[in-house]
Design a protein that fits this description.
Chain lengths: ~300, ~300
DNA sequence: GTTAGCCATGAGAAATGTTCATGTAATTGA
DNA sequence: TCAATTACATGAACATTTCTCATGGCTAAC
């Protein structure tokens, strides 16, 4: 007789994912479900409540008043649940540990620092260290017990190492704002032939642009190296050459019109980031939650990233 | 790789029911599940978390530290969910209405008043009226549109009326604290024969003790009537006779030793309370939530009541 | 006027939750 | 101390829910 109101946390997570992702399809990717499942589930929830939650007309999808009220509940309840689960994890595994982190990619510091700050708030007992300098073989550091966690774009299987996917991101070609190539919607390998390629000081086989796009096409432009992201941007802006950087790293400069950016190839050049840890550490609560925190933080903050298949 | 942590509101409701009911079996009754389902589900939750939540050794069941942390989450999250659902109901049906309530049972005012206060807090737009005086046929008031909601112990099917079960409660026999019958663990019909029976001023066929216990046994003690619960208690305490009242109504007097109480029959004399509304009103949000509120409030406050089969 | 991209839908498959029928341990009462 | 009672656990069968697959319709963009 009374309303069953069969609402579950699943529904709140769904609604949150839908609004954050801006659509059912994108939400489905984030939740590692099919679009169909998300559509079915949302409809079931709306039917159970007897109220529509999202405006299907608008794009990006908008919420109804009822949807906004439920989203408010999600925003207040889900963090409480996360906090409780963290406390339970601490109860189970202890709340102290050490996490020496090696990072393969130069631009990763941009988002890693804030994520580490967020993590420190909830795991004050964990000693965080960031290993400096470029590492030729960061996975080796894991096995040598010199690092405990590595962020890498190449999850090559190795004994005793397990990987967790973080996210996929797009490498954008950078060019001066008024460059002739800005007329194109996206760039081809040949477009790079006549320009200097400005990169971080790493071996050529670590550059996705060279390895996956230019080399296969037989294009081999001259290279110039720079240590810092801003230095690369400055060189591009002053017409010394082209560069390719992750979308999130250049977003603020694009907004200000300092440089222009174009996709590389029709579907863009997409790369991935993964976390590697020793197999024995993967289940430890403070390690698992670091990975969770980084991932959540990234999706909340970084523009133009997308979920990867696989666990998590 | 990371912990799935498949926790749902269902689990929180379960844990709350288990602690409030003080055991798995009692919790199962409240949730309208079998004891087996509760046991399975609790075990699944503990396995998922990798932590025990309840101490199975102790009786009544105790919580582990992990269980207490999760219960704290339940206490904080579940009311938020309820509040959100109420807001959605208001969005759907409107937040105003009128609720004229007729009550069949004298002692019901004890718990109905606080429940109404709680309800008023969340539905300030609903006009609450309590119809005074004894009603011979309260269901008739519903059909005549003179009342909107009736609390009754007799859910006799009638066209256009739907019932929702509230709870079952035990009628206890009251006797002076030092009376000879206090030596018995429970009373038989014959025990009433030599005493005056003190009751509210209602027809004999409305007294469960007479109709279901004494009359079938051929026992017909003299009666004396009193208007107020305290008056009945005073008469019993001063040895003018015996009485039978709901357990919850006399609990405070029992604690103080003002009167003694014994079950009536080996398994006690159990009665039920139901809510009746017109069929068309049952789905209205402010009506359904009144019933929910009353039920929740009752289980939180009243000692010695038990859930009934049926919806809700 | 195609071509994509996005959401909806129905049917079947998979996963999850519930009950039933017992078993076992702890507690109560002669 | 030995039934009798009460409460929780467990495995298998059953029921329900949730997910995926395979489509179809709709809209916006070349």
């Amino acid at each position: 007789m009374a309303n069953p109101a069969h609402i579950e946390l699943r529904h709140l997570r769904l609604l949150q994912a839908v609004t954050e992702a801006g659509g059912l399809t994108a939400a489905a990717e984030r939740l590692h479900l099919t679009q169909s499942a998300v559509s079915h589930q949302l409809k079931a929830l709306e039917d159970a409540l007897g109220l529509p939650l999202v405006e299907r007309a608008a794009r990006p999808l908008g919420l109804t008043a009822a949807g906004r009220r439920l989203l408010a509940l999600a925003h207040s309840a889900l963090p409480q649940v996360d906090a409780a689960l963290r406390d339970l994890a601490k109860l189970k595994d202890g709340d102290a540990g050490e996490l020496r982190i090696a990072v393969e990619c130069h631009t990763c510091y941009d988002w890693l620092m804030p994520a580490m700050d967020a993590y420190r708030d909830v795991w004050p007992g964990v000693e965080l260290d960031l290993l400096g300098g470029f590492q030729a073989d960061p996975i080796g550091l894991l096995l040598d017990q010199q690092a405990d966690l590595v962020i890498t774009s190449d999850p090559a299987p190795r004994a005793g190492i397990v990987y967790a996917p973080l996210f996929g991101f797009e490498m954008l070609a950078l060019l001066p704002p008024d460059h002739a190539l800005t007329a194109k919607k996206w760039l081809q390998p040949a477009d790079f032939a006549a320009h200097t390629l400005i990169t971080y000081p790493v071996p050529e086989d670590r550059l996705d642009l060279v390895r996956r796009v230019l080399a296969p096409a037989g294009v081999k432009p001259p290279r110039r190296e720079a240590q810092l992201t801003v230095a690369i941007l400055q060189l591009v802006a002053s017409r010394r050459g082209l560069a390719a950087l992750p979308a999130w790293a250049v977003a603020p400069y694009l907004e200000r019109g300092y440089v222009a950016a174009r996709p590389i190839g029709k579907h863009g050049l997409w790369a991935e980031l993964h976390v590697a840890v020793r197999a024995g550490d993967a289940a430890r609560a403070f390690v698992a939650d670091f990975i969770d925190t980084v991932k959540r933080d990234s999706f909340a903050r970084l523009p133009g990233i997308r979920p990867l298949a696989g666990s998590g």
